[in-house]
Amino acid sequence: MSTSVPPSEWHSAGELVNSYGRGTESDACLGPMAVVTGVGFALLYLRTGSLLALIGLHITVDIVGLVLIPPPGRVNEPTPAEAS
């Protein structure tokens, strides 16, 4: 299988978001959106017992983990604006 990007240059979604979107308005709204979505799926699961709602809650938690929690090594790294 051939790819245009060699595996040595692959990045996780969290790395890409943290390198390109740190401190932007879109990052600021990710937390509240994730909380609302997670609570919605949890309430739907509790009310209906639907396996689909439980899967949605699990996916929401995974996305929060990828996007909002920075990968190792990038925690205290300053942005270019902070470094100057």
UniProtKB/TrEMBL annotation:
Q: Where are the transmembrane segments?
A: 30-46, 51-69
- Every copy of the CAAX prenyl protease 2/Lysostaphin resistance protein A-like domain together lies at 32-63
Does this entry carry the keyword Protease? yes
**What keywords tag this UniProt record?**
Hydrolase, Membrane, Metalloprotease, Protease, Transmembrane, Transmembrane helix
GO biological process per UniProt: CAAX-box protein maturation; proteolysis
**What InterPro entries does this protein's entry cite?**
Rce1/LyrA-like_dom
Reading the lineage from the top rank, the first entry is: Bacteria
Q: Which GO terms describe its molecular function?
A: endopeptidase activity; metallopeptidase activity
Matching entries from Pfam families are given as: Rce1-like
- Put simply, this protein is called CPBP family intramembrane metalloprotease
